[in-house]
Design goal:
243 residues, alpha/beta, Rossmann fold, seven-stranded parallel beta sheet, 7 helices, globular, binds NADPH dihydro-nicotinamide-adenine-dinucleotide phosphate, SDR family oxidoreductase, NAD(P)-bd_dom_sf
Length: 243
């Protein structure tokens, strides 16, 4: 029987989410890990004793809520929700299929709103809890070929700060991590070859060296490890050479 509280991580099947899962698993936290490709979560190098895995699309509020309720029945209330799931499909606004904008806006914005609304009521009742939303440097700075992605991440910034203010009096913390470029699966879904080529040229401006996802995971843990009466509102983190 574990005495540590429940950590919920969305987008745990790859990239930042997988690293965050590994880090909290090493510290013995029970976890609910969410993603659509659960075979990838099952293949992570974790101690699965106190790990629940659920196939959840974060845009599906009911499915997301049921998964959290199932985990809370076993492990108690969620103490940390990491709203990490996201998608980036680069493209020029004039030529990009609007379905790609919709995918980014629903996953990156609605997914985060869904996560927050699912856990907030219980956190407020318990007078404790932490939500960490994964935004991006593209959440406060524009980049060519990123119109819908930038729109979605500016949205994450705005929603995070709004909810932080709304629930601060209940001792609930709402924080934001805004990473720069990192090598994950994120770029692999972009189909626009010109946008990909532009991105890779831009990456050379920092010597091709991007963030290691482990440092994003450590940032999430650092925010969580602060005392409950301290909220780190936002951390922006990038490779040193990123402009
Ligand atoms: P990955 O593509 O490696 O991981 C994205 C994760 O999100 C996957 O686990 C994927 O799981 C999950 N996901 C995507 N869509 C959905 C959905 N509809 N429902 C549930 N899960 C979903 O990329 P990263 O690790 O890089 O991305 C994690 C977060 O970090 C994203 O929010 C991204 O925008 C942000 N970010 C990334 C940066 C980078 O350069 N890599 C920089 C700044 C921010 P599955 O497909 O199994 O559902």
């Amino acid at each position: 029987m574990t005495t540590k509280p429940l950590i919920v991580i969305t987008g745990a099947s790859s990239g930042f989410g997988a690293e965050i899962a590994k880090l909290f698993n090493q510290s013995g936290f029970p976890m609910l890990l969410l993603g659509r490709r659960i075979d990838k979560i099952e293949a992570l190098p974790l101690d699965f004793k106190n790990v629940m895995i659920k196939k959840v699309d974060v845009t599906d509020l009911n499915l997301f809520k049921e998964a959290v309720q199932d985990a809370e029945k076993i492990y108690g209330p969620t103490d940390l929700l990491v709203n990490n799931a996201g998608v980036m499909l680069l493209g020029n606004l004039e030529t990009q299929d609007p379905k790609e904008w919709e995918t980014m806006l629903t996953t990156n914005v609605l997914g985060v709103l869904n996560g927050m609304t699912i856990v907030l009521e219980t956190m407020k009742q318990n007078n404790r809890g932490t939500i960490i939303n994964m935004s991006s440097i593209a959440g406060f700075k524009a980049f060519t070929n990123h119109a819908a992605y930038v729109a979605s991440k500016f949205g994450v910034h705005g929603a995070t700060e709004t909810v932080r203010q709304e629930v601060a009096a209940h001792n609930v913390r709402v924080s934001l991590v805004a990473p720069g470029a990192a090598e994950t699966e994120l770029l692999s879904h972009t189909t626009d070859q010109q946008a990909l080529s532009d991105y890779n040229s831009w990456k050379q401006t920092m010597g091709g060296i991007t963030l290691d996802p482990i440092h994003v995971a450590q940032t999430v843990k650092f925010i969580y490890d602060m005392p409950q009466n301290v909220t780190i509102r936002e951390i922006d983190i990038s490779a040193t050479k990123q402009e």
